[in-house]
Structure formats: C-alpha cells, structure tokens
Write a structure and sequence with these properties.
heterodimer; A: alpha/beta; nine-stranded mixed sheet; 14 helices; 9 strands; 36% helix; B: three-stranded antiparallel sheet; two-stranded antiparallel ribbon; 21% strand
Chain lengths: 357, 96
C-alpha cells in the first residue's frame, strides 16, 4: 500500500496539465507539521510501505526534511516527487540525512523552450543542474516526462537525456485528462498516429536500453481499448491525503461531484480507509454496472477510472468510457478525433483562483 | 553510460543502494521496496535475495540453496538464481 502525500498546492510552475484540482488549497489551509507526522504514523500502522511526497512542489514546505524523517522512522520507503526548482545540494544533503530514498524529477520537455512554455516558468536549466546534484548525493533518480502533442517529436531526446543524467528509470506518461489537463485537452491531445510512433520508439528503446534504463510508459486512455486499472482499484492499495487533510482514493477524486471526503483532522485515518462512504462507494466489484459486472476483467481493471467516467458522462458509476465495451466509447473516440484535429486555443495555466483570496 | 551487466557464476549480487528487503504485513509477503514500486517475493525468491549480500558469489549462493533445500537439482536452482538476479539487475534493483 502507498500514500501520496500532497503536502501543498504551492508550486512555482504552472503546468497546463497539472494533476492538482482546479480549486487549489492555499497555504493557510495546509496541515501543520505535527498533523502530517501523525498521518505518516497512522498510514504506517495501516500497512503502508511507501510514501510519495508530492504537491504542488513539496519543497515549498520548509518542514519537508522533518516529514521525511518521520516517515523513515515509521519504516516507510520515501519518494520525493519534485520539480527540482526549489532544491539545491544543501537541502538534498539534509533530505539524505533524514532518510530519503529516491527522487523523481519532473521534466516538461527535452529542451528549455518547450519545457518553459508548458510550465509557464523558466525552470528547465535549473532542473538539469538539480538532476546532477541528485546523482552526486547518491540517490536513485527517476526522470519523469509528461508527453503530449507539443513535445512528442522529442521523445528520443527525452530518453537520451534520461540516460545522460544517470537516471535508472524514466516515466514517459501521456497526459491524463482530468482537471487542468481536461481544460487544455484540445491543445494537448496527440493524434493516433503520433501515439503509435511514440509507442514504437518506446518499444525500440526498451530493447536497446535493457539493463541501463527502465522505461515506464503510460498511454492516453482516449486511444485505449481497455481501461487502466486506475490506482490498482478504488480503495485497494492507494490513498491520497490533500494539503488540508482530506483523504482520497485517488488524487483526482474530488472532481467527482457528490462524493464527500473525510479529513484526518476529524476522523482516524484507519477508520476513513476501512469505513468511510467515499472509500466504500467504488471498492471491490459490487458497485459495478454492466458491462463490468461479470466481466472477466472486473478484477483486473476494476472498471477503470471513476473520475474519467464522471468527467465524460457525468456519472461516476458508469464503466470507464476508455473501455471498448462501454456504450460511451464511441463518444470518446469522437472527442479524441475532434480534439486531436483542433488547433486548440491559448493554454489555461494552472493558478490559484482569483476569486477566493 | 554503462552497458547492461550480465549475471554469471562469479557475480556477487546485492541490492542496489536505496532498495531494501522488507516484510509487508498487509500482503503477508516479503518484498523489495524500490523507487515507486515494490516487488513481491515468493519463498524461493526471498531465499535467493536474502543471500545476495555482495560477498557471496552466485555459485556459492546456489551451493547454499542446494544444501538448504535438499533434493533440489543443482541445474534448476542455478537457472532460477541467474534468472532472478539478471532480472533484478535489469530493473536496477540489484548490482552485480
């Protein structure tokens, strides 16, 4: 079991596909150091093995080292998922001393111009510098690239960059269309031909780089025939705690209207995991409608993604439209064709809402 | 860049830095915790990985396993060990 600890929504970057919700939490609402330390103890007792410190940019929290130390003391394997732009070798040393095990560094592109445009921030050069510091500090490095229409042609350069930086692992993840990415779908979605070229490049690189670089590849649902096993199934192996302490079965779950999420400030985490309405709602297979119900893949893909079903059909309890067996699949293919052919508009950059200061 | 390391009888495998053997109570299984993933180990895999200390050679590990699990054919044990170690090396979990 793993915890995604979204320590904060604060981040210098404004990536147009940010996985944070559209309504971002401000610093004043964030859990305190002691509240996070309690969460980390509670998840370890619940059986969690790994914690992914994420955000926003987790290094925007000055107590990051303290939280890593708390997690390590509870026996958790600690990952840091970072943009790298707020960190340097001094802080890396402190994180190492605190017990950090692994750094996952996000890149927006293989070249600065493309990367900085997507992030709305000049950060690419700093990331390259930080990647070197990660390796010097002795951490395993994962280079994470989110890919889309505007950077797919540089996929070979991304793989070369990952190797050159000494990463042993890279994630090539096509944008998943929720939240901010959904706002920008018509500007980001690749064509099916672009996707097929990318997949062929990854296949070739996996063979060529065997034993040098592990490539994890996430394809876009819009061209799939079967849905992904989102989060390994709702409430099975994964939980997310938001900056203000709400506990979610996945980081996008708050996009589903009508679901209420409990808060670690008000209810023990064990109790939320086992009994809360939100976790029980889509856990297992009892909730499934046709064609999931009785499907031989029901316990393989767990009905796909609830957030996607909601985003595309308005009903979170329908089969994920990414499944070719779904009656909504044809509509998904239409959307993909329309958006991939669209020139898109101006990007909507991730930012805090102007109205709720 | 380094090339792919190939496991052989004289290799001295061990878990790479920041990968560790840990028991998962929730799944009731030994695991190797590694960046962004955990590898579940069955009884045989655990017997192999727990012997990979960076000093024992693969040949010595095979001898040890054969004496621990009496009656196991040496060729089959050796093939299992080489396969697991090569796989974990390819995934960056072990160094040779």
């Amino acid at each position: 079991m793993a915890l995604l600890a979204e320590l904060t929504h604060r981040c210098p970057l404004q990536c147009v596909y940010c996985s944070n919700p559209l309504h971002l939490e401000r610093a004043g609402g964030e859990l305190t150091t002691d509240e996070w330390l309690k969460v980390l103890t509670e998840v370890a007792e619940l059986g969690c093995m790994q914690v992914h410190f994420s955000g926003g940019e987790p290094a925007a929290r000055r107590d990051l080292e303290q939280l890593v130390q708390g997690a390590a003391q509870s026996g958790l394997y600690t990952n840091l998922i970072t943009s790298g732009v707020l960190l340097d070798d001094v802080r890396l040393k402190r994180l190492s001393d605190a017990g950090l095990e692994h750094v996952q560094l996000s890149f927006q592109d293989a070249v600065a111009e493309g990367a900085d445009r997507i992030a709305g921030f000049k950060g690419h050069a700093k990331k390259l510098e930080f990647a070197k510091a990660v390796r010097v500090a002795g951490f395993p490095l994962t280079a994470n690239f989110v890919v889309h229409r505007h950077n797919l042609e540089r996929l070979p350069a991304m793989l070369d960059l990952a190797v050159a930086l000494g990463a042993q692992r890279t994630e090539i993840a096509h944008v998943q269309y929720y939240g901010w990415a959904l706002q920008n779908r018509a500007s980001l979605l690749p064509t099916r031909e672009q996707l097929e070229r990318a997949t062929a490049i990854v296949d070739e690189a996996r063979t060529r780089l065997k034993g040098v670089l592990v490539i994890d590849y996430v394809v876009p649902d819009y061209y799939a025939r079967r849905p992904k096993a989102c989060m390994g199934g709702w409430g099975r192996r994964f939980l997310n705690v938001t900056p203000s302490g709400r506990v979610l079965p996945c980081h996008a779950a708050e996009s589903i209207a009508g679901l209420q999420f409990d808060n670690v400030r008000e209810r023990p985490l064990r109790d939320i995991w086992h009994s809360s309405e939100a976790f029980q709602r889509f856990r297992g297979t009892d909730w499934m409608p046709a064609p999931c119900r009785g499907c031989e893949r029901a316990e393989i893909d767990w009905g796909g993604c609830r957030c996607q079903a909601f985003a595309l059909t308005g009903d979170a309890s329908r089969t994920d439209p990414a499944c070719a067996l779904s009656s909504d699949h044809a509509r998904l293919l239409e959307i993909a064709a329309e958006d991939a052919a669209s020139s898109g508009g101006n990007f909507v950059y991730r930012k805090f809402a102007l109205s709720d200061d | 860049m380094n090339g792919r390391a190939i496991a052989e009888g004289s290799s001295q495998p061990k878990l790479a830095p920041h990968r560790r053997l840990q028991f998962d109570k929730a799944r009731n299984s030994w695991t190797v915790q590694a960046p962004e993933r955990a590898f579940l180990l069955d009884e045989i895999a655990h017997a192999i990985v727990s012997r990979c200390n960076g000093e024992a050679t693969i040949d010595a590990i095979v001898d040890d396993l054969c004496s621990t699990f009496e009656g196991a054919p040496r060729d089959a044990v050796a093939a299992d060990v080489l396969k697991l170690v090569q796989d974990f090396s390819d995934k960056g979990v072990m160094t040779l």
